[in-house]
Amino acid sequence: MNITMLKESLAQLNIVTQCRRYGLSLWQCPQFLFVVMGIIIIFTSIFSYLLGVHYIANVETVIFIVLIIAIVLFIISYIITRSFERLAEASRMKSEFINIVSHQLRSPLTNIKWTFELLTSKDLKVPTGKVEEYMENVKENIARMVELIDDLLIVSKIEQGKVPISKKEVFLENLIKDLIERYRIFSEASGIELNLYFQEQTSQVFTDPSLIKLVVENLIDNAIRYTKGPGKVEIKLAREDKRVLFSIKDTGVGIPQKEQGYIFQKFFRAENALKERTRGSGLGLYVCKSIIDNLGGRIWFKSEEGVGTTFYFTLPIK
After folding, report:
1. Beta strands in 72-123 (DSSP E)
2. Residue 81: how many CB atoms within 10 A of its CB?
3. Do 273 and 199 share a domain, yes or no?
4. 188 and 295 co-located in one domain
């Protein structure tokens, strides 16, 4: 987890990478502007000192005045830069939102449109045996749209701070077993072995079962989806002091190191995931982190591209 945090911090210091992420030129990029303003502050401080020494005999007074000026200028530049950064981030997120949502909705809607045009065509006769297959395709595409809309509604509630939390005693082992059975057909069809390992009497926590179920569903779904069979997905539960540790390890495509700092950001999807054309909105991990944070836990991951990924989260027992 500390390594991941260090990588995130280093990624923030890379001005060129940050500017590319916002899709801005250097002179429009908040981080670059902050550096420029820092240089201006340094030269202003030096000039103020030289000017002060010329007119004020007491050197300590001059230094004090220069420090005050530098601090005030730094605070002003920081506030301005942060404002620009928030605007740039909002613009980037808006563009990504439009691109992702339009793409995610367009594909299933197009499939549904073609299917119904085929079924209602007077020129083409669909074999009776194929009708059921086409209707299943329609149901699957509708489910994809419902999933995306549900994710957007959850994100909206999270950002407005309106996610209801109802805590009670939960046996994570039982909750996870039920989810594994639900995903068993999906994993077997993909040639992926799905297993759960746990220590006795370690899975009882005081938390919100519906929210934890949503987190585990997202993590299992991702692990299977990004593992090209044959492969393995291993889920483990263990106790660490006054917390329960959940981990899920896959042998999937992994996350490129240069992109690991952004993985919990809203709408973010790694390049290799896009190349694989794996379905997803880029909202699942953002939702997971928000929920775990709200429940008093922590979530992190370790990943190597081409080898696999392991996600972890902890929850307080009480």
Report:
1. none
2. 20
3. yes
4. yes
Structure tokens at 230: 């044959």
Type of residue numbered 233: V
| Radius of gyration over every alpha carbon of the chain, rounded to an integer in angstroms | 26
pTM assigned to the model: 0.61
Domain that holds residue 108: 100-159
Euclidean distance between CA atoms 229 and 208, whole angstroms: 33
Question: Distance between CA atoms of 265 and 218, rounded to whole angstroms?
Answer: 15
Residues in the chain: 318
Let me know: does 214 contact 175? Beta carbons within 8 Å.
no
State how far the Cα of 76 lies from the Cα of 53, in Å rounded to an integer. Answer: 25
Rounded to whole angstroms, what are the CA distances from 252 to 166, 248, 289?
A: 34, 12, 21
Its sign, for the CA torsion 166, 170, 174, 179, is positive
- Same-domain check for residues 115 and 213: no
Structural domain count, the chain: 3
Closest residue by Cα to residue 318 from 258, 263, 213, 244: 244
**CATH number of 306's domain:** 3.30.565.10
pLDDT digit string, tens, across residues 187-246:
888 889 999 988 766 667 889 998 999 999 999 988 998 888 789 999 999 888 888 999
Assign residue 137 the CATH number of its domain.
Answer: 1.10.287
Q: Tell me the H-state helices in 124-245.
A: 128-159, 172-189, 209-225
> Residues 215, 205: contact at Cβ < 8 Å?
no
- As a whole number of angstroms, the distance between CA 148 and CA 102 comes to 11
